[in-house]
Amino acid sequence: MSGLTLLAGTANPGLAGAVASELGHPLAEREAARFPDGEMHVEIRTSVRGHDIYLIQPASPPAEEYLLQLLLLADACRRAGAARLTAVMPYVAYARQDRRGTGREPVGARLIADLLATGGFHRVVAVDLHSPALEGVFTLPLEHLTAVPLLAEAIAVPGPDAVVVSPDLGATKLAERYARQLDLPVALVHKRRVSGAEVTVRGVTGDVRDRIPVVVDDMITTGGTIEAAVAALLEAGSADEMIVAATHGLFVGEAVRRLAALPLREVLVTDSVAAQTGELRARRVTLAPLLAEAIRRLHDDRSLADLLVHA
Amino acid sequence: MSGLTLLAGTANPGLAGAVASELGHPLAEREAARFPDGEMHVEIRTSVRGHDIYLIQPASPPAEEYLLQLLLLADACRRAGAARLTAVMPYVAYARQDRRGTGREPVGARLIADLLATGGFHRVVAVDLHSPALEGVFTLPLEHLTAVPLLAEAIAVPGPDAVVVSPDLGATKLAERYARQLDLPVALVHKRRVSGAEVTVRGVTGDVRDRIPVVVDDMITTGGTIEAAVAALLEAGSADEMIVAATHGLFVGEAVRRLAALPLREVLVTDSVAAQTGELRARRVTLAPLLAEAIRRLHDDRSLADLLVHA
Amino acid sequence: MSGLTLLAGTANPGLAGAVASELGHPLAEREAARFPDGEMHVEIRTSVRGHDIYLIQPASPPAEEYLLQLLLLADACRRAGAARLTAVMPYVAYARQDRRGTGREPVGARLIADLLATGGFHRVVAVDLHSPALEGVFTLPLEHLTAVPLLAEAIAVPGPDAVVVSPDLGATKLAERYARQLDLPVALVHKRRVSGAEVTVRGVTGDVRDRIPVVVDDMITTGGTIEAAVAALLEAGSADEMIVAATHGLFVGEAVRRLAALPLREVLVTDSVAAQTGELRARRVTLAPLLAEAIRRLHDDRSLADLLVHA
Amino acid sequence: MSGLTLLAGTANPGLAGAVASELGHPLAEREAARFPDGEMHVEIRTSVRGHDIYLIQPASPPAEEYLLQLLLLADACRRAGAARLTAVMPYVAYARQDRRGTGREPVGARLIADLLATGGFHRVVAVDLHSPALEGVFTLPLEHLTAVPLLAEAIAVPGPDAVVVSPDLGATKLAERYARQLDLPVALVHKRRVSGAEVTVRGVTGDVRDRIPVVVDDMITTGGTIEAAVAALLEAGSADEMIVAATHGLFVGEAVRRLAALPLREVLVTDSVAAQTGELRARRVTLAPLLAEAIRRLHDDRSLADLLVHA
Amino acid sequence: MSGLTLLAGTANPGLAGAVASELGHPLAEREAARFPDGEMHVEIRTSVRGHDIYLIQPASPPAEEYLLQLLLLADACRRAGAARLTAVMPYVAYARQDRRGTGREPVGARLIADLLATGGFHRVVAVDLHSPALEGVFTLPLEHLTAVPLLAEAIAVPGPDAVVVSPDLGATKLAERYARQLDLPVALVHKRRVSGAEVTVRGVTGDVRDRIPVVVDDMITTGGTIEAAVAALLEAGSADEMIVAATHGLFVGEAVRRLAALPLREVLVTDSVAAQTGELRARRVTLAPLLAEAIRRLHDDRSLADLLVHA
Amino acid sequence: MSGLTLLAGTANPGLAGAVASELGHPLAEREAARFPDGEMHVEIRTSVRGHDIYLIQPASPPAEEYLLQLLLLADACRRAGAARLTAVMPYVAYARQDRRGTGREPVGARLIADLLATGGFHRVVAVDLHSPALEGVFTLPLEHLTAVPLLAEAIAVPGPDAVVVSPDLGATKLAERYARQLDLPVALVHKRRVSGAEVTVRGVTGDVRDRIPVVVDDMITTGGTIEAAVAALLEAGSADEMIVAATHGLFVGEAVRRLAALPLREVLVTDSVAAQTGELRARRVTLAPLLAEAIRRLHDDRSLADLLVHA
User: Are residues B15 and B47 in the same domain?
Assistant: First the structure.
């Protein structure tokens, strides 16, 4: 596999190492430290001249740090003669800031996309972005991989009485993708305005009575959405043992405490983000084979079609 | 209002004229014809040097024609010394092509956005785009206006027993915006997989029994979505008299015939697109005051905040 | 010929197929249809990752349609990992709009050139553009091929008494190129102001008496220029049997009727444009060998020098 | 006329001063010297912050020097806070290199145009470019002024028996413009292939017998074209006293000697280029009023339509 | 002062407030917080449409945070219709990474400069950058202000026996600027190789015996340079009471402890960076008047010449 | 070495030929002449399609000529299908104009860097630029080679009593690099303000008594700096026989006369610039092996690390 360089920032060394193992190709040596004044210093220790470089770095929190480190590494590669530069970002922060919401806000997703273009990348690889519409936001060509097959395969399906549940409207298409692979029906938790006054309730659409819900989402941040979905499902008569699966487990704030208190048989996330889950025994499904396969095919100029989100 | 130029392509002369009337400012004289070989010829008849130009042209079907005409007019303006060039596009085609869906497709929305940037515009004004996430797709700053207040005000609300209905998941947030203004509850027609097999049914979430539905969507193209929603609503026991409101009435293919066959008390659309509705007595709510107010404020450097989609 | 992809839009499937046959390399499968709302949908059916792609699409009338389709196909290729993207455009519309003529007009040729650059192409192949000066208008490198050798060879030269005729000043250099290959003298039809008053007449410069004119031009649109030239030639005593040759046969409006009424022994055009000639028995000289040879050499990194217009 | 800055390089101080006088507005003080190592040093002595700057500098030979000086001055203006930067280039070198002629050549005209865009200019003002098609070559908006009215007015028309003569095909449209203003007919000197062998002769089309030719061209470089035209005209029986008019008088090489030897009653050129004409008593018609009027209108945002080449 | 907006990030609210007070113009209300997942959220509370915006934010450590916040604020301004956007960055991180030093490193300074250009700024205001050569690194026009006059004026000059000392070669030109204003001689501490072996010593050039050193530098980071300079000065017989002045006081790591242990009569820094100095009684000279004056003149289109570094 | 093209402008044919000899690869045939009107004409005589092109052209005086020629050659290569284009510029003019010094000046170094980027180059190779910080000024990746090892090796070291001397502060780091290779100590000539009044003297820091100075600098222009350094060294008691070494020998103005009058045992420069040294017997150390090795490795995608300036 001559001419290939795997390079990693410091955001998720475990995942980067696992990708390298899958590929049987070592990570390029590099330095990534800070000067006493807090500025980052990066340096690549091997020649990358003419190489096809895959820079593995999720933009997970603190995203500003990992983004700037990614851009510095890219600049070093570019100046050192890299032939092609691909950002492998299993998690992309600011993906939800894809519009101005309440007023004079930035469109953070576009800013991140533009910074990557400025940084000299030729291509971006991401996994289960918050919205497929982010493809249009990226100036660079985007390979939008999906971890749904990996996660769906890892779920110990609890029998034909299970039901895939989308915890809000935004995850409905994702739930359909899980359901297709698990051969299960779909239900939907939704917030809805029920009167002229500003009253909204959370209800469940679809048959969940006595069924075991498999609640799926693209990411778990504070755990609040899952917590509310579980309450709505119990109220709708679902089994009181559930499964939760999400591609990105950020587990920020009260997330671990909240989820640990719910009747969850299993919580599955990938290792896209190197977050700690403490008391919560979340199962990590590794993205390494998926990312390695994508890198292998990109380097060999073969189609990625069956690895991509089709939405 | 010195230094302002209103210019229109041929896509929707009625709307352009109405905007000009609202502003009390004439449309600039221009030629827009075709040479014998089919190439378009445009020419602006008055000096635009140093002017703040608003080029009114929805990219409605045939979008390729109106887009290229828009770009030609913009080039003429730029070369003739325009100081600022704003594309006022009440309808933007290709907005739904914001991702690669099933495979090696283009991201049409981004292409259109990039062509507008190449064309020398400084800013785009649009109305109720298919998705608020298109803001990130546009390279140019986008003023994303909404016609919901105009349409909601125009609806003859049939009393407290009405209910705003989203005909599919994609229109849910739009339905909430109508509901807030009309002080009504929201129901939702949705397609859902009901078993492990590939069986999907259309159901209704929310209380519609004996209520008069106000079905809302961003646009009416073939009328198929409305037709299916009406069937689902009737099956769910709604009143058999309904109202339909949508910002963009394209009415392509069988749309007019289909809608005319439904128990619709009223169909409301804006004049964003100059489509014919034939036998269907659709009511047109004009966008002219909204666009005129937006132009007035842009020209005067005043805030548009209360005219924008907040999503 | 690994790594090569031939792709065609819908503008001239006959020519695209002939080029593929020449190369012994199939056209890539693709979809090119319209959605019910009139938006174009394109999709490429085979992997193009890492490929050197030649996208065959003349921008013939309706140019706006074929241009946007070309740009959509290019975007699909770029996002799917194309290594190099060449627009093979045997006919390029708007080539005559290379200046502002009478006033505040666009420079359409430059706009088209800029759209192609925005579309992600790396190179453009064209044939007998209206003016060699368009090379400077194109931002992308341009391979300006010429069909003159093909056409000249196809002309059944009527003997040493023939004369190559340029029907107006603009075609003079083209006529010289034909004359060199056919080993014939050149004459020139010209409009000229003959007095202080606004009186212009069409005269003939050069010896045409009793000679058989071979009238050459870059394109035939309405046939008006040819019609006037024939009249002037007859008046100047030429033989009353003539030959007409042009690279691009658009035959718009009254062209077929007009030319059919003239004493033309033969009309030769290439298949750059897929126009119908009805009652006029125009002979088509195919560009397929020329385009195939250019593609073969570009793909193999060999010189195109002897295929290019030298002006 | 607040906010206006007139700035000049060293290419044509006489013309720059005359423009300043016409406008009643002094040239900004600046330094333009060379360091001992030959590098140019420029510095602007007055504040230009927020100003609308007109940088007067023909790119006459040695064009590389005047171009780089122009770019250095522009960079100084841009960094010093210029609001708008217009290159006033009465003569633009490399305009004839608008295509690759015989092979692997640059397209010099486009390179110059791109360097001006890189240099931070917003607009270019030029006079009687070699070809109107250069408008498409320029990335920046171009104001293509014409000196034909000034020159035509300055010609002492020798009576109704005069005839405007184009000395080659390229100047035909220019000759028409002179003829319209002078109310005279047009004749044309042309080179033409007269047999199958490579034999070309120079002939005259149009009635010149006993008429006084007014030979017009866009520029006089070596004088060779004029010399040959005069010979052809005399052979065709014209009066043996002629007038020559051209916008740009470069008078390089043998030009002065050649023209001095011809039966020319008068040679008129503008002061676009600061060339010496020695023994040849060429009359200089100053461009100052034209350039001053263009600057005045550009600064005041008024139309330039009647000052432009219409081609 | 209509049309002016002052906006501040969170890097140095004290300085931003002081600038606003100096200008008698309030800071625009804005939100700058973090979402639970750690992403930054910014929003501007007042209309900035058509405004000339000055965004005050030093890129002090943690630079990645303040830089991304600055870019997000700029994006919000740009989309909300800002007419002009100036980054007022009294401190610019990564300024020393202006070359690849030991190998395959990034050029961090250029990356920062390019991110600012991508972010939509029109101009950058900085103070005493590590090297004047950074002006060429910035793509955007840079106003390189100097705090030397403010600091020099604030130094209680200890009499004619004082001497300005540059603690290393890099600060020599800075020392000359202090010396000119304080009317004092200059001495220089330098490291120098003293033999063929790799032996370097720190010596003092210039007369410092019994003189009171005024040690000046552009910034104080760890204090190590100052500590070594003080030792060299004492060894060279200087007075044992010194003054230290630097524009940027970052005081990272051991800096406060180190400097507190030295025989320093006074340490002067500006408030460019909001660092704590704890036990070290460093005197802060505020940049507010300088920045306010620069903003006032930029807004009014007046020259900044006398506020700039001349090097 | 297939696919490699060496191409040279006219600035330094000797060096270009030597590089070609070193590589055993001929210079590509090209024309580089002037038209009668002074415009440059370049043309490449062999196919460069798909080639990796190294364009050898120092931007030595007259820099404007060699720069424009370089850009014209690059444009020809780009249009003719070059795959990669590297500017090999052993000398880069305007490198010292990297900041605005006394006022409203351009930043010439950045302008040159931007022109090279506009010209379509992918990479620049330079030798011992005036300042390592120019790496950040270049938009394109820069390979900053050093001739110090070549020159140091060529110096006939006069024994252990020699001392490397930096003739001013700017060359100190360069002197250290020479000293490391020659295993010698370093001394420093410096100008310094010695009192409150504007009095500066030139002194020597470091032990030079009876030692033979090896005065080193990046370039020799007028020889003034060397002349002053020699005077200071003699006054400080150095040996009265010295050696001078510099990468770039421009020898402008009085340089040759000045240096010939000094007690110099030897003057060493490289052949980066094709200047004449007349009576001064300067020894030329050729850069050809260095440039050839850099080109060989770039073409083969191997590391250049040990050939670069590390600063």
Answer: yes
Q: Which residue of F has its CA nearest to E173?
A: F169
Catalytic annotation, residues of E = 191
Over 80: is that where the pLDDT of E268 sits? yes
Q: How far is B172 from chain C (nearest CA, A)?
A: 22
In this predicted complex, what is the ipTM? 0.95
Do B234 and B173 belong together in one domain?
yes
pLDDT tens for each residue of A239-278: 999 999 999 999 999 999 999 999 999 999 999 999 888 8
- Give the separation between CA A82 and CA D304, rounded to whole angstroms: 50
pTM of the model: 0.96
D240-296 per-position pLDDT tens digit: 999 999 999 999 999 999 999 999 999 999 999 998 888 898 999 999 999 999 999
CATH number for the domain harbouring residue A269: 3.40.50.2020
**Separation CA D37–CA C166 (nearest Å):** 55
Nearest to E160 by CA among E180, E189, E181, E185: E185
Find residue B164's DSSP bridge partners.
B186, B214
- Mutation for testing the A interface, residue in C29, C47, C85 having most A CBs under 10 Å: C47
Residues near B26 by beta carbon (within 8 Å), at least 6 away in sequence: B6, B20
Question: Is the same domain home to C156 and C281?
Answer: yes
Mean pLDDT of chain B: 94
Assess whether B81 and B184 both reside in one domain: no
Q: At what angle do helices F63-79 and D63-79 cross, to 10 degrees?
A: 90
CA neighbor of B70 nearest in space, from B22, B12, B127: B12
C-chain residues within 8 Å CB-CB of D182? 196
Model confidence pLDDT, tens digit, residues B6-30: 999 999 999 999 999 999 999 999 9
Distance to chain E for D50, nearest Cα, Å: 5
Euclidean distance between CA atoms D33 and D39, whole angstroms = 9
Chain B residues in contact with chain D using a Cβ-Cβ cutoff of 8 Å: 3, 47, 49-51, 78-81, 83
pLDDT digits (tens, 9 = 90+) for F116-167: 999 999 999 999 999 888 999 999 999 999 999 999 999 988 788 999 999 9
C212 lies in the same domain as C101: no
Secondary structure class of F160 (helix, strand, coil): coil
- D207 lies in the same domain as D160: yes
d(CA F76, nearest CA chain C) in Å? 10
DSSP string across D54-76: EEE--B-SSHHHHHHHHHHHHHH
Out of C141, C298, C302, the one facing F79 most closely (by C-beta) is: C141
Domain that holds residue C257: 148-285
Distance separating alpha carbons of residues F5 and D38, to the nearest angstrom: 31
> Chain F residue closest to C308 (CA)?
F80
Shared domain for F204 and F248, answered yes or no, is yes
Which residues on adjacent β-strands are paired with residue A87? A55, A124
Inter-chain CB proximity C105 and B65 less than 8 Å? no
Closest CB to B80 among C73, C74, C104: C104
Nearest to B192 among A136, A194, A206 (CB): A206
F138: closest chain A residue by CA: A79
Give yes or no: residues C215 and C125 share one domain: no
Determine whether D130 is exposed, middle or buried from the number of CB atoms within 10 Å of its CB (0-12, 13-18, 19+). buried
Say how many domains are in chain D: 2
Contact F83 C301 (CB under 8 A): yes
User: A10 with A270: CB under 8 angstroms?
Assistant: no
CB pairs under 8 A between A and E: 152
Across the interface, whether the CB atoms of E49 and B305 are under 8 A apart is answered no
Buried b (16+ CB within 10 A) or exposed e, A82-106: bbbbbbbbbbbbbbbbbbbbebbbb
- CA–CA separation, F22 vs D289, rounded Å? 59
Nearest by CB: E118 against A45, A118, A252: A118
